């Protein structure tokens, strides 16, 4: 038997600082430090995010190593998010990785954040083994920055079948929440509110786009007009109806997502269907996909909550497969705010 492959994964693309240890594909630790500083601003403030990453990165890495019971010398390589993301945030994780790799003389493995969201489905846990999707499978990746339907042919062969032309699904949740003066991030708040609301009381159309493309920017304008009109008649309109509005908006977003996903699955004759990204934490989306999967005889893969939003375990597992397939050059390269799949 060969030596164990031990990877330290580092994630700092947006507003979560995270470090994880993956040993032979198994998660040994996955520590995430979120950032509360952005709540007051209704969105991520890039400069504040970079500063918070600087404050968190060393304690987060220390904790991840300690929880895993791994010493720095035992690492086979260090994986980091090269992009896409906020430049200042990426620079903190990237520079840290570069410094650590030079000091330890260990190879660096760059990771694409969007691929990592998808490959999170391959993380194994210590307690029990997880079912993994079979190639080729489809993944609907829905986060604060992206909305994509991806045909996943292999660990490193992925084709984006379609994506959003403007706002991402998570962004749509966040922007609608902001219009309703709900706290940031709005997705989880709308998810909770919607449980109490009637999704058919207000209807919010979502633009029908060609092929597998999405557009969510019209939705927030539509919501804005409805809120303005309602408030003119009754100043307490939003307060009285927030659960119904949340439920209606959520229903519209999910319908747009799943319609396209079903169409893509039929066109490509694929039965293994996965969900990824922060919005995959949405309870109604999880339930609706499960139902749609039953109807179509799909094997559906819905990530546990810890792997929905940004985390370093997904960076670690992606670096692990790069390491196994020798699909890396070991050198640090500066981050890319925009990075293709
Ligand atoms: O993947 P992620 O953590 O960061 C990005 O890479 O963007 O996704 C964050 C996004 C935010 O827009 C947040 O509102 C959304 O995921 N989100 C949700 C839920 N939890 C997080 N959206 C809807 N329902 C949720 N339960
Ligand atoms: Zn993400």
Q: Beta fraction of the residues?
A: 15-25%
Looking at the structure, what is the overall shape?
Answer: globular
Bound molecules: 5'-O-[(R)-(carboxyoxy)(hydroxy)phosphoryl]adenosine, zinc ion
N-to-C terminal Cα separation, in Å?
34 Å
What is the typical, i.e. mean, pLDDT? 96
Q: How would a crystallographer describe the biggest sheet?
A: 5 strands, mixed
- The tally of beta strands, per DSSP, is 10
Query: What share of residues is helical?
Result: 40-55%
Write up this protein.
The chain has 341 residues and is of the alpha/beta class. 42% of the residues lie in helices and 18% in strands. It contains 9 helices and 10 strands. The strands form 2 sheets. It has a 5-stranded mixed sheet with strand order 3-2-1-4-5, with helices on both faces. It has a 5-stranded mixed sheet with strand order 8-7-6-9-10, sandwiched between helices. Helix 4 packs parallel to helix 6, helix 6 (217-233) runs antiparallel to helix 7 (237-268) and helix 7 packs parallel to helix 8 (283-296). It is globular, with a radius of gyration of 20 Å. It binds 5'-O-[(R)-(carboxyoxy)(hydroxy)phosphoryl]adenosine (KG4) and zinc ion (ZN). The site of zinc ion (ZN) has 6 residues, from helix 3. 5'-O-[(R)-(carboxyoxy)(hydroxy)phosphoryl]adenosine (KG4) binds next to helix 4 and helix 5.
């Amino acid at each position: 038997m060969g030596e164990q492959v031990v990877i330290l994964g580092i994630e700092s693309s947006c507003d979560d600082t995270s470090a994880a240890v993956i040993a032979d594909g198994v998660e040994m630790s996955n520590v995430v430090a979120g950032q509360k500083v952005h709540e007051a601003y209704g969105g991520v403030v890039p400069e504040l995010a970079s500063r918070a990453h600087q404050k968190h990165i060393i304690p987060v890495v220390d904790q991840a190593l300690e929880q895993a019971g791994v010493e720095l010398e035992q690492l086979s390589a260090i994986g980091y998010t090269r992009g896409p993301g906020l430049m200042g945030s990426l620079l903190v994780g990237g520079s840290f990785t570069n410094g650590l790799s030079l000091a330890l003389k260990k190879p660096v493995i760059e990771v694409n954040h969007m691929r990592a969201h998808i490959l999170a489905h391959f993380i194994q846990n210590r307690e029990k083994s997880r079912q993994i999707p079979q190639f080729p499978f489809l993944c609907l990746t829905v986060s604060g920055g992206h909305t994509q339907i991806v045909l996943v042919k292999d660990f490193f062969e992925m084709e984006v079948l379609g994506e959003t032309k403007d706002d991402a699904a998570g962004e749509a949740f966040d922007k609608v929440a902001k219009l309703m003066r709900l706290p940031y991030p709005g997705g989880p708040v709308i998810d909770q509110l919607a449980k109490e609301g009637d999704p058919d009381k207000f209807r919010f159309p979502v633009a029908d786009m060609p092929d597998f493309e999405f557009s969510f920017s019209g939705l927030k304008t539509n919501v804005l007009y409805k809120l303005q009109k309602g408030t003119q008649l009754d100043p307490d309109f939003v307060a009285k109806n927030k659960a119904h509005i949340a439920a209606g908006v959520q229903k519209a977003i999910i319908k747009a997502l799943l319609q396209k996903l079903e169409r893509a699955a039929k066109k490509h004759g694929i039965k293994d269907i996965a969900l990824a990204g922060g919005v995959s934490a949405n309870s109604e989306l999880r339930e609706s996909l499960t139902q749609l999967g039953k109807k179509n005889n799909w094997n559906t893969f819905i990530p546990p909550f810890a792997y929905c939003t940004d985390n370093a375990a997904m960076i670690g597992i992606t670096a692990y497969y790069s390491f196994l397939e020798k699909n890396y050059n070991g050198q640090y390269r500066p981050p890319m705010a925009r990075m293709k799949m």
